[in-house]
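Page 37, top half.
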Amino acid sequence: EVQLVESGGGPVQAGGSLRLSCTAAEFTFDDGGMGWYRQAPGNECELVSGMRNGKIWYADSVKGRFTLSQDNAKTTVYLQMDSLKPEDTAIYYCAAPFAPVVAGRCLRDFGTWGQGTQVSVSS
C-alpha cells in the first residue's frame, strides 16, 4: 500500500529545534516531488517547504530556519526546524507528489498524504 508516515513532532520551547521525517512506503520520491504543509486550527493550510525537479523552496515565514533534505534512497524526506516560534505551532503534513495550496486549502484528495504530526511551540 502506498503511504506516507510523518514522525518527529512534539512539544518544544521557543528557540528550540525539531526534525520531522516523512517516510514513503511502496514508492520513492521522484521528480514529481513532495511538499511539507501545516495547518493550525482556524487557520489556512500553508505550504511550508517543497521540492520538485531538483529544486527546493521555502515559505517566507520559515526561510532561514527550516531545511528540507532527503536520504540517498529517496524514501525519506526530512524537515529540520530550528529557531522555532509559537506561530509555528500546527499539524504538519507531508504529501507526494507536490501539490499547491488552493484558496487556503490543502488538496487532501490529490496524491498521497501522511496522517500528520503535531508540533507545539511554547513561549
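Page 37, bottom half:
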Amino acid sequence: QVQLVESGGGLVQIGGSLRLSCAASGRTDRSYTMGWFRQAPGDEREFVGGMSRFGGSIYYADSVKGRFTVSRDNAKNTLYLQMNNLKPVDTAVYYCAASSSMVVKSLGREYDYWGQGTQVTVSS
C-alpha cells in the first residue's frame, strides 16, 4: 500500500505560480510511475502530466505544455508539479496518483493509488 498526500494548493492570480507536492509513504521501497490529474466542478478528471517509474519519460497534456513541470525527489519520496503562468481554466482539484506501470498512462484507471487532492483556484 502507498499513501499519497498532496499539498501546495491555494488561490493565485492569473499569471501566477504554484508548486504542488505529493508526499508518498508506505510501500516506497519500490518505484512507481506517477501522475498528476485534475478535476474541475462538473468536468471529468483529466490527465495533467506524469513521470515514468525511473524518471526516463515525462509527458504532459497539451493544455499545460510549456507551463507545468513534473519532477520528483526520490530521496524524499515526493513528486512535484510546478505550475507557471496559471490561467482560470487551471482551476481544479489536483490529484497525484501512483501506478505500477513502467510507462506514463493518461487514464486514471491505470493508477492504483490516489491522494485526497488539493484545490487550486486561479482568480481573474
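Margin note: The chain has a mean pLDDT of 94.
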